Amino acid sequence: MLIFSKVKGLTVWKAASAAPDVHLNFMYSSFQESKSKPLRGYAASAERSASRLAENMAKPFSYIRDLNAAQKHCLQKFINLCMIDGKKNKSQKIISNTLCRLAGYGDVLTFIMKAIDNVKPIIEVRRRSASGSTQLVPSIISRNRQETLAIRWIVEAAIKRRNTKKSMSLDQCLLAELIDAFQKIGTVRKRRDDLHKLAESNRGFAHYRWW
């Protein structure tokens, strides 16, 4: 078989002088083989890339299409508030890593929503000039702003923790803040309680609210 393969081209070439169709068929089949090889390689490479993409997408966002509107909105807020200098891909990667780390705590989105609910402020204070002085006027916050403030505080606390603990990545710090918020402890929960106490102490100026 080895000897035949070495002299195969020569044998066909000699036969081609008597029968040109044999040579043409051999050349055409050789061309088809050389043409199909890169296509098969490209198809295999594309299949591997698709499988890797499917695996990566399945880790944190496998059920993104099954989320309700509130959960999608919450996740999008996290991505936008983590974004710095318009680097949304980097922000998405941080959130993805955080979701992967939260996988060991049960349902990820339920955990996050519960953590946010635990640190949501329901009232805030605004400065208003009255009688030549500035007063802190308490006011009720809308649900959308409550969620935005809670997420912003969690992200800010994670960044502050990252600046003090250089050995931790931002997704690790974000995970730690979410766990603290879920357990109703930590700096974010304290910030929320302090804001409520400040609003309570200034409730006498609530009649100045015009908005």
TrEMBL record:
GO-annotated molecular function = rRNA binding; structural constituent of ribosome
InterPro entries for the chain: Ribosomal_uS7, Ribosomal_uS7_bac/org-type, Ribosomal_uS7_dom, Ribosomal_uS7_dom_sf
> Which keywords describe this protein according to UniProt?
Mitochondrion, Ribonucleoprotein, Ribosomal protein, RNA-binding, rRNA-binding
A GO BP term here is: translation
| Small ribosomal subunit protein uS7 domain location | 69-203
Task: Identify the Pfam families for this entry.
Answer: Ribosomal_S7 (PF00177)
| Top-rank lineage group of the source organism | Eukaryota
**One cellular component term from this protein's GO annotations in UniProt:** small ribosomal subunit
Q: Which family does it belong to?
A: Belongs to the universal ribosomal protein uS7 family.
Protein known as: Ribosomal protein S7
Write down the species: Closterium baillyanum
